[in-house]
Amino acid sequence: MKRLVFGSLSFFEQWGAEVIRQPALMFTLVVAPFLLLFAFGAGVELGGPRPNTLVVQSPDAPVSIEPLLADLEQHVLIEGITESLPLARRSLERGDIDAVVVVPDNPQAFLEEGTQVPLQVLIGEVDPVRRSYARAYLRDQVAALNQRTIEQVLEEAQAGMGDVPQITADARGYVDVLDGARNELEDARTHVGELRDALVPLSATVADIDDTASQLTFFVPGLSRTQQQTERLRNAVTDLQSSVDEIDSRLATASGDDGLPTEEEIASIRGSLDEIDGMAGPLFGIAPQVISAPFRLELEDVTPVAPTFTSFYSPGVLALLVQHLAITLGALTLSRMRLLGVVNMLRVAPIRPVEVMLGNYLSYTVLTGIAAAALVALLVGVLGVPVFGAWWLVLATVVLLILCSLGIGFVVSLLSSSAQQATQVAMLILLGSIFFSGFAFSLDRITWPVRALSYLFPSTFGLRTLQDVMLRGLLRHPEDLVVLLVATVVLFVVGTLLMRRELRAR
Amino acid sequence: MPDSPTSDAPASSPSSPAGGPEDDPSPGAGLPRPAGRRPTDAHVTFRDVTRVLGDQPVLADIDLTAHSGELFGLVGPSGCGKTTLVRLIVGLLTPTEGEVLVRGVPPGDFAPRDRQRIGYLPQEFSLYPMLTVEENARFIAGLYGLSWFRRRRRIREVLEFLEIWDARGRLAEHISGGMKRRLGLACSMLHRPSLLVVDEPTAGLDPDLRAHIWEHLREVQQQGTTIFLTTQYIEEAERCDSVAVLDGGRMAALGSPADLRQRADISDTIDIEVDGLTPDDIRALWRLASVKDVRRAGPNRLLVRTDEGASAIPAISEEFAARDRRVTSIDAHQASFEEIFLRLVEQSRT
User: Fold this and answer.
1) How far is Cα B307 from Cα B315, in angstroms, rounded to an integer?
2) In sequence order, what DSSP letters do the residues of A82-144 get, joined into one string?
3) Contact flag A352-B112 (C-beta cutoff 8 Å)
4) Who contacts A7 (Cβ-Cβ below 8 Å, separation ≥6)?
């Protein structure tokens, strides 16, 4: 027991003394990753800058592109306008610009033919992520352009439709007067004529509404109900006008009280006017923006706080750094001992393989743990990275990640024949972790069976747990900690057996 | 050196500590022991040991015994198998054939308690260059389970004994080669081993430092520690109680330095200058019992080979005095151990 304690601790003392004499090592372990993350958070934008764009317009274009340019400038940087598509294409191929927008010569002609207007956009991006982003961005922009076009059409149509409520209000005034003069034949004739004249613009207006509804249905297929409504409106107006015409005709030939409009007829006219108001109201009351975009996104984010770039990537950086540091230190252990000849001292000394392993685990866990703690302190204290979950979970995850990674490092070290080989393996593990651990791409974007690779790296489990605990405040995958624990135990046993083989007489 | 080495369990010894050489069944037991030292039990025993590395035998048919408390030297040129033999003792290697026993236990079966009794200074002692002298010693002491309190006291004792205490705060990468060797020796002694296995302790050091290290080794031995060392400096073998001469992986000779000198059969030479030297004078010398050869090296100069130069000089001087000749100078030249080594190797090859 005494030898177990003092033997194991002697590795810790030796490492501690060596590390203290290397302040640059602590800088490399803690400050450098922090500065990298700081620069990353400060300098990388989501989505990137607005693309530099060249606009191509044919000299024969019959329409002005000024409105289109004004709209485009909200989303892209317009480098210039050219008439030559080949010239613009060459600029794009050379990488001088990011995109080319080709303005259609005559959009109206396409619409009149009942086809969509092609809006040609050329891109020359080789980065798959940026290509994907550009496609989504352009689709979004074209949809927005369509929406704004519908809005404009609606605004113009509504402006030209006249004012149905005003017409019906005027008509009601004549109806009231008619009602008052209902018993006087001559007065009734005069007022019915006035009412009939007042209703004439209503027919023209309803015809305009009908046209508008047809156009809207063309742009927005979902608005077919509007066309049905305008048909009913048109019928109601026709019926009203027929009723008034009939009264007018009757009064023209009437003598005495026989042809005078009845109280029921006056009430019917009032009812028809109310019905027309009721049907036209919704059509005129709906704002063009509502018709062009009937659905509005209501997004609710249930995460405790919207993470910044830095916050989102911090748990990943922490997990990768801890893993890489532990694996590298572990992987170089035996190489260094072999190089210095310490392995022979261990073979001769009364120290057991398990004591050598425990000593090295202790040394490197403390060293990596200090580096991780310092990094977490900087991330939280300086960069404001949140920790919504329990701190003990962060601690447990980091410790398990260190132990598991050290196990991998020791096994690599014990199986490698040279320091170069061990370093290469450590670098390969880091590279694999960046691609497959969920750091660069989320795990659900990695398909099976390739995703099986992800579960070979401890950082996959550490990263997911740290992200959940720090940014969501909960532990969604407790099994990740179990996996790390089991892997730690297995790797310790395997490492100890390999160390026993290493220290055996040859 | 204040303390005695770690005691060994007598029960583990294959031979009785009380028994004489005749009771000792170990190889080499029949050879005469060094003068003034009574052989006790066998500490290290090789029986017909062969070790093959790759497909080359590095050691072949090695038989030897190093007894408790003795300073056993293994000499031979570079590449003769000294380090391999030492590694067999400490358990770094196992024999391909034959048997190695340390206190009756094969090194391959060493328990931690057996290892605790062995101190080992490899040819290239392992140092952490970024640690100080004291920290390196502390690390090794920890491997041998010394508690912090004992460790502190013991490190001071040993570093002071080897005269490197003043350098305890210096980084190992900044100390001289001699200090490194002494630090290595210190580390191998920290846990008070009963067997100290030292591979080339003086290699690459200047004569003063070599002599100094030998003094330290002698002092350690006087504390009761068995020392098994290798050296490529043949003349150092004369400082040992027993010497094994290795040549090409085979044992060329084994015995005390005096035994080896005798077995090499190399005469001492006496250089004499005499006034008025005559052929009769030479013939007179031939008649002396100790004289083996007489050669004229000049008009008045003779080179006389004898079994032992120091004891023959009085007889020769008396002979010339009786013949009324004036000896102007007379010097005895003892055969160097290097010459003895070469002769022994030559003998073993023939």
Assistant:
1) 13
2) ES-HHHHHHHHHHTS-SEEEE--S-HHHHHHTT-PPP-EEEE----HHHHHHHHHHHHHHHHH
3) yes
4) A349, A351, A352, A355, A356, A359, B142, B143, B144, B145
Q: Do A2 and B145 touch (CB under 8 A)?
A: yes
Which residues of chain A make contact with B93, given a CB cutoff of 8 A? 505-506
B159-166: which pairs have CB atoms within 8 A and are 24 or more residues apart? B159/B133, B159/B134, B159/B186, B161/B1, B161/B186, B161/B216, B161/B219, B162/B186, B162/B216, B163/B212, B164/B133
Q: Which two tokens stand for residue B330?
A: 């007379």
B148 touches chain A (CB under 8 A): yes
Q: Is a pLDDT exceeding 60 seen at residue B291?
A: yes
Q: How far is A347 from chain B (nearest CA, A)?
A: 7
pLDDT at B12: 34
* CA-wise closest residue to A75 among A123, A144, A166, A17: A144
CA angle A332, A335, A337 (to 5 degrees): 105
* Tens digit of each residue's pLDDT (9 = 90 or more) over B265-288: 777 788 889 888 888 888 888 888
Which residue of chain A comes nearest to B138, CA vs CA? A10
Residue A9 at interface with chain B, using a CB cutoff of 8 Å:
yes
Chain B interface, mutation test: which of A1, A6, A13, most B Cβ atoms within 10 Å? A6
Our CA-based measurement puts residue B106 at a distance from the nearest CA of chain A, in whole angstroms, of 11
Q: What is the DSSP letter of B116?
A: T
Is there a contact between A17 and B135 if contact means CB atoms under 8 Å apart? yes
**Quick one: average pLDDT of B101-109?**
88
Pairing of strands B42-53, B56-67: antiparallel
pTM of the entire structure?
0.70
Residues of A in contact with B189 (CB under 8 A): none
